[in-house]
Design brief:
It is a single chain. The chain is α/β, with parallel strands linked by helices and 284 residues long. The chain is built from nine helices and seven strands, in the order βαβαβαβαβαβααβαα. A seven-stranded parallel sheet has the order 3-2-1-4-5-6-7, with helices on both faces. Helix 4 links the parallel strand 4 and strand 5.
């Protein structure tokens, strides 16, 4: 953790989940933390907690709606006006939605695209000139193991995370030798508020995962930070998820597609049964 000694880190989505844990683990080592989220009251509560344990740490809280590009631009101008120079950017904020895409509400899909893709890209683009002025700086983009394959009932979320992983790899290649490392964190299921938010407003079984796949937030963050120290391109916490993703890369996609189709076949049958819709006859 000496790698982060004296750093100035910006953490998006810092009010809960992985963002909150990133702040807690970096606080004893950083010179300053910039914490952003929509819920300012939670940020202030976290600031009080961190300040008590780390009296020499400078902590800035900024209520930021990442669905608003103008707000992001105002935020980056505020950083410049305040003379706050970020050398560790953690793009952690993300939104999810669980359920069949045909039943999704655009009011949930649009913010997911805005936060997971547009805001991450815009914030990285705005801060990259500052990051490049340091001898050593880093970008950590929180993606997901869902970025490696299409995931029915998480179709848009998985697609946005596929963008994050691909973007991170390409940016890493572009910045090789420029003193800016780029790491994509691709965790499996983590016990945070994500599942509750993703399942909100949907009837039927919610999004869940087997316990053996779940990794505590503390471990996910610890492994992510060590991945940054070691300049790793990707971090996949947890042996079970790591092995599972390894198998995904080895299996021909035609077999994965068969499994995806089978996974949703029962859902359509249940829906048709509830609505009294007869299954279509096969075309001969």
């Amino acid at each position: 953790m000496k790698f982060f000694q004296g750093c100035t880190a910006l953490i998006t989505g810092a009010s809960s989940g992985l963002g909150l844990e990133f702040a807690r683990q970096l606080a004893p080592h950083a010179r300053a933390l910039v914490l952003t989220a929509r819920r300012h009251d939670r940020l202030e509560a976290l600031k009080s907690e961190l300040a008590r344990a780390n009296p020499n740490l400078s902590i800035y809280c900024y209520a930021l709606d990442l669905t608003d590009l103008d707000a992001i631009d105002r935020f980056t101008r505020w950083l410049a006006d305040e003379g706050i120079r970020i050398n560790f950017l953690i793009n952690n904020a993300g939104l999810g939605d669980h359920g069949l895409f045909q039943h999704s509400e655009w009011s949930k899909v649009k913010p997911m695209l805005d936060v997971n893709i547009t805001a991450l890209t815009r914030l990285t683009h705005s801060l990259l000139p500052v990051l490049r002025t340091f001898e050593d700086s880093a970008i950590l983009n929180v993606s997901s193991s869902a970025s490696f394959i299409p995931v029915p009932q998480l179709a848009v979320y998985a697609a946005t995370k596929a963008y994050v992983t691909s973007f991170s790899e390409a940016l890493r290649a572009e910045l090789r030798g420029a003193g800016v490392s780029v790491t994509a964190l691709c965790p499996g299921p983590v016990d945070t508020e994500f599942s509750d938010v993703a399942n909100a407003g949907h009837s039927g079984p919610g999004f869940s995962a087997p316990e053996f796949l779940k990794v505590p937030a503390e471990r996910v963050v610890r492994e992510a930070l060590m991945g940054v120290v070691r300049d790793r391109a990707r971090v996949i916490p947890g042996w079970a998820v790591f092995l599972g993703m390894g198998l995904v890369f080895l299996i021909p996609f035609v077999f994965i597609r068969f499994g995806l189709n089978a996974s949703v076949a029962g859902l359509h049958e249940d829906e048709e049964s509830r609505q009294g819709i007869a299954s279509p006859r096969p075309v001969r």
